[in-house]
Amino acid sequence: MKCFPAISKRTMFIYFTLLFLLYLFYALNTCLVDEKKLTQKYLFIKRHISNYKNVPVRFASLLGFHFGEVNKYRISPVPIKRLPDALIIGVKKCGTRALLEFLRLHPDVRAAGSEVHFFDKYYHKGFEWYRNKMPPTLEGQITMEKTPSYWVTRSAPRRVYAMNPSVKLLAVVRDPVTRAISDYTQSASKRPTLPRFEDLALVNSTVGWGGIPSVVDATWPPVRLGIYARPLRRWLRRFPRTRLLLISGERLVADPAAEMARVQEFLGLKRVITEKHFYFNSTKGFPCLLKSESRSTPHCLGKTKGRNHPHIDPTALERLRDFYRPFNERFYQMSGINFGWP
Ligand SMILES: Nc1ncnc2c1ncn2[C@@H]1O[C@H](COP(=O)(O)OS(=O)(=O)O)[C@@H](OP(=O)(O)O)[C@H]1O
Predict the structure, then answer these.
(1) Can you tell me which atom of ligand 1 is nearest the CA of 182?
(2) Contact indicator for 266, 168 with CB cutoff of 8 Å
(3) What is the DSSP letter of 99?
(4) What are the sequence ranges of the domains in the chain?
(5) Using CA atoms, how far apart are residues 110 and 16, in angstroms rounded to an integer?
(6) With a 6 A CB cut-off, is 306 part of the ligand 1 pocket?
(7) Which residue of 38, 293, 295, 331 shows the fewest CB atoms closer than 10 Å?
(8) Would you say the CB of residue 96 lies under 6 angstroms from ligand 1?
């Protein structure tokens, strides 16, 4: 006597195989979405297979199956906090805030508002702490943060790699002489008694032409930070060149839409940020935003961005340019980009 006269043995076999496969994917998914099991290794595996593991679950949900907890994280449009997919790692005073604020115009980018300083100051707090600092994102959105000091933190490349070797890195660079003046201007705004820039950037040993010392103090942090080749070498020891996008700080001011097109392409984003988002504010002397996520009226970055720089003696500027020239050349060679700094 036949128990299931309408179903052939072959169909039964297919049904059982499908059910078994479904069970297998469900078990895998349940295990992978347990956010409490957050370890470095776990995160690494999760990130690599997350693109594929949802396929059967999505397919099953289309057929009317529901997976409770699994759906909570992966299928329902509930945003969750994730570790960053991309980082703005530097360079201090090169336009990192402008880059982040411009990127925020993109609906597929969510970024931590303030600098998190995880890979330099708070690494001991662990990845769970770091993840909690991130804004919630939907699947497919990019989580970001910017902390310019990562660029020069020796342990940062190793630590970032441990979080995610596929992370995308962005660094804004700018003429190191202007960068040094910008750095000094920031310090002087907090300490009005600070000596003149020329007196700090140049060592008083040999007085050269025009009464200006001829030796640049390469140990003074505002000068030292402009030697971009050294940190770049450290980052490239861990990450392939294709994972690091170098952005010109000058072009970010002169043509923000063009530079943002490069950034969006690098991050695999649709080109949403265009000329339409910017206008040039001649009072400020910088590009500003017509509207943003938080404000619907035209606005510029805050008062601490785009400060007036003090007048610097032209001879001192010439000394600094001579000092940086070989380092810049080295940086152009290593990066494969000629930034054209004077
Ligand atoms: N759109 C726009 N508006 C204002 N400022 C702009 C912009 N684009 C680039 N910049 C330049 O960014 C410089 C500050 O760099 P950072 O944001 O990297 O500074 S920080 O390291 O986060 O303190 C800042 O330096 P200063 O001019 O010395 O203030 C600017 O030159």
Answers:
(1) 28
(2) yes
(3) H
(4) 9-78, 81-178+219-335
(5) 43
(6) yes
(7) 295
(8) yes
What pLDDT digit, counting tens, does each position of 97-141 carry? 999 999 999 999 999 989 999 999 999 999 999 999 999 999 999
Strands 80-81 vs 136-137: parallel, antiparallel or unpaired = antiparallel
- Cα of 79 from ligand 1 centre, angstroms: 31
Residues 6 or more apart from 21 whose CB is under 8 A from it? 56
Q: What is the CATH number of domain 81-178+219-335?
A: 3.40.50.300
- Residue 326: CB atoms within 10 A of its CB come to 11
The 8 Å CB, 24+ separation contacts for 32-41 are 33/69, 33/70, 33/72, 33/73, 33/74, 35/73, 35/80, 38/127, 38/128, 38/131, 40/127, 40/162, 40/163
Paired with 122 in beta bridges are none
Q: Which is nearest to 332 in space by CA: 322, 340, 320, 324? A: 340
**pLDDT bucket at 22, cuts 50 / 70 / 90:** confident
Closest CA to 150 of 140, 163, 141: 163
Q: Give 197-216 pLDDT, tens digit per residue.
A: 999 999 876 555 566 777 99
Tokens of 206: 């040999």
Span 65-69, mean pLDDT?
A: 40
Give me the torsion for CA of 19, 23, 29, 30, rounded to 10°. Answer: 140
Catalytic residue at 93?
yes
Instruction: List the catalytic residue out of 46, 53, 92, 93.
Output: 93
Q: Report in angstroms the alpha-carbon separations of 100 from 30, 73, 90, 97, 173.
A: 35, 27, 11, 5, 14
Distance between CA atoms of residues 227 and 135, nearest Å:
33
Q: Say if the ipTM goes beyond 0.95.
A: yes
